[in-house]
Write a structure and sequence with these properties.
Blueprint: H1 7-19, H2 28-40, E1 45-48, E2 54-59, E3 62-72, E4 93-94, E5 97-99, H3 103-119, E6 126-134, H4 143-151, E7 156-159, E8 167-171, E9 173-182, H5 197-209, E10 215-216, E11 220-221, E12 223-232, E13 243-252, H6 258-266, E14 276-280, E15 282-286, E16 292-296, E17 298-299, E18 302-303, H7 309-320, E19 327-330, H8 336-342, E20 347-349, E21 364-366, H9 367-385
Parallel strand pairs: 3-6, 3-7, 7-20, 8-19
Antiparallel strand pairs: 1-2, 2-6, 4-5, 5-21, 8-18, 9-13, 9-14, 9-17, 10-11, 12-13, 15-16
Helix pairs in contact: 1-3, 3-9, 7-9
Bound molecules: zinc ion (ZN).
Length: 386
């Protein structure tokens, strides 16, 4: 299988995508651009689903498996503070890199997938390639991808989040943990008549700090970080607060369930005698189509062994394409939390740029890495579907 890649057209398409701002829930304009490019590249079918994800299909000449490539179309915003040296939506080329929001996370990967899928030799292709340009990943990992996978069930998935052109065979998951302590209100001139929920929460927080978190030799330690705390009523006027809420960001390792995560907190000796509710947060976001996405914010970790057949095939495909990839794991959470963690469909990650290039000022993507990513995706297609 050969790949005849129009490099300058791929670079220009990536720059077009960067020039179109696409915050989570505002991906409509970039979706239109992606749809037009898929049509221009002669995808066999192209549509936009209920959540605004663009899905394109390339059918091989022979029957076979379905290989799905996923990249999200939303990006984080431009934080106030330190100014960019390059216009955030200018897609400026400076030296060997393209600058702009979303270049690394992950419009470059998306463009590379599209071009790899469109330029493989369909006559030697067994099966079908699905490219999923999914929405709302920055706020709810995996939910929009689930909708795509429900319609076009894949046998294998490639997530295009940055791996610095290595092959990711796992990723940490995340959960949003909500804690609530319940006390008893009283006039703050007589605090002994009430029970102060904030003081209870302080004991809970101290107990949580004592939890010994698990560690994985390949993926590193789990994380449990306090991200906010608020009393209720807030602000309090002459009343002892009867409710206090705290939120934790929990980064998950393979095998950890919601019950494990919550149980480790509620079983701590220091919280006994306190009215404590520990739950997983629920997120609700609106797609630009008007549809609502609702889901529990528990996105499991995932990990395949080096010897896994799909991991080995994808790695061989990258090597055959001239990419000296090694296997690695994502430190952050991706749409693979759904495809691998919940749906148990064999999944790997491969993309240009590094995790440190995401969400930063002067986000950049090296042009050579963009082209190498396209060759790498084509190599994976060849190894899995040829
Ligand atoms: Zn991303």
């Amino acid at each position: 299988m050969t790949l005849d890649l129009p490099s300058s057209r791929l670079i220009e398409f990536t720059r077009d995508l960067i020039r179109i701002p696409s915050l989570s829930g505002q991906e409509e304009a970039v979706a239109h651009r992606i749809k037009a490019e898929m049509r221009a590249l002669h995808f066999d079918r192209v549509w936009v689903d209920a959540y605004g994800s663009v899905v394109g299909i390339v059918d091989g000449a022979q029957p076979g498996k379905t290989l799905l490539f996923d990249a999200h179309t939303d990006t984080v915003g431009i934080s106030p503070g330190v100014p960019w040296q390059h216009e955030p939506f200018g897609a400026t080329i400076d030296g060997d890199a393209i600058y702009g929001r979303g270049g690394a996370d992950m419009k470059g990967a998306l463009a590379a997938m599209l071009y790899a899928a469109a330029h493989v030799d369909r006559a030697s292709l067994h099966g079908r390639i699905v490219v999923s340009a999914s929405t709302l990943e920055e706020v709810l990992e995996g939910v929009a991808l689930k909708a795509v996978m429900d319609v076009t069930p894949p046998d294998f998935v490639v997530i295009g989040e940055s791996t610095d052109l290595n092959l990711s065979r796992g990723g940490r998951g995340r959960a949003e943990v909500h804690l609530k302590t319940t006390g008893r209100p009283s006039h703050s001139s007589a605090p002994h008549l009430g029970r102060n929920a904030v003081l209870d929460m302080m004991k809970v927080i101290a107990a949580v700090e004592q939890i010994e978190l698990p560690e994985d030799p390949f993926m590193g330690p789990a994380i449990l970080a306090l991200t906010d705390i608020i009393s209720d009523p807030y602000p309090g006027h002459s009343v002892i607060p009867s409710i206090c809420r705290a939120t934790y960001d929990r980064r998950l390792l393979p095998g950890e369930s919601a019950a494990d995560v919550l149980g480790a907190i509620t079983r701590q000796p220091g919280v006994q005698g306190i009215i404590l509710h520990a739950t997983i947060g629920v997120g609700e976001y609106k797609a630009y189509t008007g549809a609502s996405l609702v889901c529990e914010k528990f996105f499991p970790a995932w990990l395949y062994p080096e010897t896994d057949a799909y991991v080995a095939a994808a790695l061989a495909g990258l090597h055959a394409a001239g990419i000296p990839a090694q296997t690695s794991a994502y430190r952050f959470c991706t749409n693979a939390a759904y495809s691998a963690g919940l749906a148990h469909v064999p999944t790997v990650g491969f993309g240009p740029a590094t995790e440190a290039d995401a969400h930063v000022i002067d986000e950049r993507l090296r042009s050579d890495d963009l082209l190498a990513a396209a060759r790498g995706y084509a190599g994976i297609i060849a190894a899995v579907l040829a």
